[in-house]
Amino acid sequence: MTSEYNILIADDHSVVRQGVSLILKYSLPNIIINQTDTLNGVLEKMVVTTFDLIILDINLPGGNNVLMIEKIRGIDPNVKILMFSAFEEDLYAMRYLNSGANGYLNKLGNEEEIVEAVRKVLTTGKYISDSLKDKLINDLLNNVSQTNPLERLSNRELEISRLLVNGYGNLEIANHLNIQMSTVSTYKGRIFEKLEVKNVVSLADLFKLYENN
């Protein structure tokens, strides 16, 4: 990497932004780093600055779903997007990659993985971890499709499922996601139907079985 690159780190936690910024500046001195903590901040900065790469928190305020990618691409179709999340790759990575992201990086990765992910996206346009690559190859060789029942859920259904499993009630979920309680109830019904469970206890058991597989 010899060119100079403009990178935007979008995460609502200052400690995360500062930490990633320090790691990248140390290992990739030919970069210029900007920061923001909301999706609106991303879109506003893109209007005045052309970025080579956006490191995008999967839970960024104002976004929280794959539609973030569509909004960003609406301003700059060529910008590279590296999703940044603590959520499991098995459940989330392909959703965002299929929606147009260039890579998916787990926040629990070490410094070398962060640098490698950024370097690869900037130079080759793509990044997936070795563990995800192995899973995809294994699934392909064994003709495996949808082995994890949680993969039947949409992004919003998966998000609400997590909140249910973590003890949130319908009202708390509605307030947390800024949606109507009736909408939560509708999603809850869909989730139970898709996963063939009858209550939150059974849903939690399913998550224990599959979310780390």
From TrEMBL:
All residue ranges annotated as the Response regulatory domain in the record: 6-122
Keyword annotations from UniProtKB, A to Z: DNA-binding, Phosphoprotein, Transcription, Transcription regulation
Gene3D superfamilies: 3.40.50.2300
Name of the protein in question: Response regulator transcription factor
Organism whose genome encodes this protein: Flavobacterium supellecticarium
InterPro entries assigned to the protein according to its UniProt record, in alphabetical order: CheY-like_superfamily (IPR011006), NreC/VraR/RcsB-like_REC (IPR058245), Sig_transdc_resp-reg_C-effctor (IPR016032), Sig_transdc_resp-reg_receiver (IPR001789), Tscrpt_reg_LuxR_C (IPR000792), WalR-like (IPR039420)
GO terms under biological process: phosphorelay signal transduction system; regulation of DNA-templated transcription
HTH luxR-type domain span: 146-211
SMART domains reported for this sequence: HTH_LUXR, REC
Residue numbers bearing the 4-aspartylphosphate modification: D57
GO molecular function: DNA binding
Tagged with keyword Transcription: yes
